Structure formats: structure tokens, C-alpha cells
Amino acid sequence: MNPAAGTALVLALAAWCCAVRATPDYRVEVAPDLASLRVTACLGTDDAGFAPRAAAALGYLRTARALPDDTPLAPRDGRLVPATGQRCLRYTIDLAAAAAADRRYRALAPGNRAVPVPTWLWTPAGGAADAEIHFELPPGVRVSVPWIPLEEPATWRIPPSPRSDDAVIALGAFTRCTFSQADTRFDVAVLRGPGPHRPAMLARWLATAVATAARAHGRLGARHVQVVVVPVADADEAVPFGQVIRDGGSAVQFFVDAARAESAFLADWTAPHEFSHLLLPYVEADAKWVAEGLASYYQNVLMARAGSYDEARAWAKLVAGFGRGEHSVPALSLDDALPVGGWDGIMKTYWGGAAVFLLADVELRRRSAGAAGLDQALAGLAACCLPSPRTWTAPDLFAALDAQAPFAVFTPLYARHHAAAAFPAWRPALRALGVVVGDDGSVTLDDGAPDAALRRAIMDGGSRSPVPLATCADG
Ligand SMILES: [Zn+2]
Q1: With contact defined as beta carbons under 8 Å apart, do 434 and 451 qualify?
Q2: How far is the CA of 78 from the centre of ligand 1 (A)?
Q3: pLDDT tens figures, 96-152
Q4: What is the distance in A from the centroid of ligand 1 to the CA of 275?
Q5: What is the DSSP string of 292-331?
């Protein structure tokens, strides 16, 4: 760089960094070897210093200086506070150490990193909502984030959002794949790690799972979804773990054994389950059975609609789940099962919640003579209220679903079941549908049952969206 250009850059940066905006700004320079980040951060007008959301972030902070006079700044009581009249600072982060803190990311190939945002982003008190953030990337280095893209390249807005877990960014020479489903854009980072690098196959699997989730009513309740695919070695299954993260946007993270056959990925329920979560807004963590119940019910219904399961198999999987849930922590309510119930509590949470949504779906279909169901209520919810920047209470969500349905079935089911220890009565509903459960747990279907047509309609059809075509590019 020649001196004149350097002077111009300093002046431009000084002008950028110290303009007083209502919201905070970040400029993140990524070292070519991914060893460090240099972050220039400016406070918004109402902010009084930066603090990390995770206490561990203090351990990754290497240097901090106040701008524009470039004086050293030390954290005091865990905060970085510029002197009066100064709103900007520059700090460096040991990215290698921050990325190694979570052992799930330690096996990534050199040149690939996944890093939780709270380990490096110092935010004003009250969070970084509505901040603007820009990345300066060396050649060959890509970044994947969960935020809203702005027109300027490598620039995003961090919007207000609930927080279910910590957002993660991916950096490096990963492969980016993108596709769209209705008005939702999926931005997939396929990281390199143990096992073969098969981004095209993994993108096909994800696009298929998204099309499966869209068989509820054609749309998902987010505009942008970051997907991070982390390879693991020698797992017991194709997709040992998946997780939706709401933190500054919607994201889904999958840990995969990419050596497995494509057919093993397509048969796996994890991705349809995770993408089904996006049919709902984020519901309070104290009522996990709501989100997990909906996803557990729909993962089977939607995989049947997509042809991955035949109808009897989908019902058999639901029956098996209800059985597991019914026999788990029988003294605990849906609200209480997860915090104190261990693995059995998880079974009751997931399958007790699934039973509530089955009962709602069946009652809506029965009372409307098949004209309405859970799909239509969710479609109405998406049209009125999604994406949503806030955390919903369970009663709020059930009332909103009732507002979209011809009959109020959700709130009465919530009132009956959320604090009751008794497992929702799924057997009579399945009997009327013609799902016959043998003494050995086997399932046969009876087309002479009174609600057999409703049973077939639940598993058949839905919104038939074609599988989106993904395009991939290497970094
Ligand atoms: Zn889930």
C-alpha cells in the first residue's frame, strides 16, 4: 500500500468509526491464517461500553485500544468502556483459541473454523440488536453468519431476536451452497473435516428435507436461514445431531458422517425435524414440549407425505413415540418433565407434545369435516406473524393458532395438558382414525374406522413443493 493510500484509508476509517449512529457498528478483519480477528466497534448513541455475552470471551481478548487516539484500553469489571466523548474501540481476538473452546469443532480441517459469536463479539449492554457488521475477508476465506444480508458485500444487520442458543459463524475454505424454498433463502456452509467432502450430496439432502418440511403448508417462518454442516468421523448414523439456533436470526446446525450413503441421509428424520421447528416462532424455553412436540409430530407426518415412509410406518413411529412418552416420568407434567426428568423427561416432552398436536389436528379435521387442520392453522400463523423477532409464551402461541382456525381447539388442549401429569389420551383418537395397535405394539390400518378418511388425509398430500435446486461454490 502506498503512503497516500494508507493516509486515505486511516481518514476513511476514522470517519467511519467515529460517526455517532443510533446503533452499534462493527468492522471485522479476518487474519489470512484464521488465527485472529481484529474488530473495530463503535457504540450507538445510548450505549455505555461493551461487554462479552459469554464470560469466557475475556480469555480470548488479546488487545484493546480506544479510537481515535489509539490508547490502550483494559477491561474493567469485564467491560470495555471508552473514555467520555469516545465511542469506538479496536480489539483483537485469539480466534484459534476461541474456535478450539468447543470440542465439537476441533476436528475441522485446517482453514475451516466454526466459532460461537459470544466468544468474540463484545456487545453494548442490552445486546447487539440492530447492529450493522461488516467483514473484511482475505482471498479464499468465506464467512457464514445467521444475520440479515445488506446490499454492501459482506455486510449484515444483526436484528432483534430471541436466543435459544449461541449463534455460530463459519470462516474459511468451506463450500457454500444456496437454495430457496418459497420466500426463504438457505445459505449452507459445508465445512471440511474428517471424512469425504461431499457438498453437492449434502446440499441435495438438505434441500430435500426443506421441501419435506414445506409439505405442511408450503412456507417456513424465516426469510434467511444459515445452515452449518460440521463433519464428524465414524458416527453411528448419518446425522448424529442437529439443532435449530435462534440468535440474531434463524440457523440450523448439523453434525454429519459424510462417508454414509446418500440414501442414509434421505432416510434420516433429523433434518425434517429441525426444519419443522421453523414452522413456529421461538417459544419460551420453559415450554420446550411445544416446539419439540410439533417437530416430533410433523417429522413423521411430513416424511410420509414426501414418500419417505408409507402410511403404516409413519403411524407406527408415532405410536412407538407415544408409548415411550406415556411410560416416562408418569408423575410429571409436560411443563415439568424436561427440567427434572432426565432422558425419560425428554421422551415425555417430545412425545407428550406430539400427542397434543395430534389431538389438535384430529379435532380440527373432524369438526371441519376435513376442511381445516394443523396445516391451515400454521399457514395462518405464518401469514400473520412470522418471522417474529420475539420469544412467544406457550399460551400466546396457542391463542394465535386458535385465531387462525375455525374452532378454538388449541387453547383448551393447552389448558388441559400443560400442567397435568396424565399423558394426553392418544389411544381413542388413533382408534377412531383406524390405527389399530396390537398387543405387541404392531400397527395395522383399518379403513372401516369412522375417521379413516381423516387419517389418510393427515399422511397424504400437503403442499407439494418441488425440491429446490442447490448451487454450490468452493472457497
Ligand atoms: Zn427439536
Answers
A1: yes
A2: 34
A3: 999 998 999 999 999 999 999 999 999 886 666 689 999 999 999 999 999 999 999
A4: 9
A5: HHHHHHHHHHHHHHTTSS-HHHHHHHHHHHHHHHHTSSTT
What separation in Å is there between the alpha carbon of 278 and the centre of ligand 1?
Answer: 10
The owner of cell 397424504 is: 460
Do residues 198 and 170 make contact, with C-beta atoms less than 8 angstroms apart? Answer: no
Q: Grid coordinates representing 117?
A: 459469536
A 10 A CB-CB count for 383 gives 12
Helices (H) and strands (E) in the chain, counts: 14, 21
Handedness of CA 44, 49, 55, 61 (dihedral sign): positive
CB contact at 8 A, 351 and 345: no
> Is the pTM above the cut of 0.90?
yes
Ligand 1 geometric centre to CA of 270 (Å): 8
**Could you list which residues have their CB under 5 Å from ion ligand 1?**
292, 295
Quick one: 160 exposed, middle or buried, by C-beta within 10 A (0-12, 13-18, 19+)?
Answer: exposed
| Strand-strand pairing, 88-94 and 71-72 | unpaired
> What gap in Å lies between CA 305 and CA 292, rounded to an integer?
20
DSSP 396: H
CA 389 to ligand 1 center in whole angstroms: 20
Locate 59 and state its grid cell. 480469555
Q: Which three-class secondary structure state does DSSP give residue 143?
A: strand
- Spatial distance between the Cα atoms of 233 and 268, rounded to a whole number of angstroms: 17
Domains and CATH numbers, the chain: 20-108+118-138 (no CATH), 279-459 (1.10.390)
Closest CA to 349 of 335, 359, 361, 360: 335
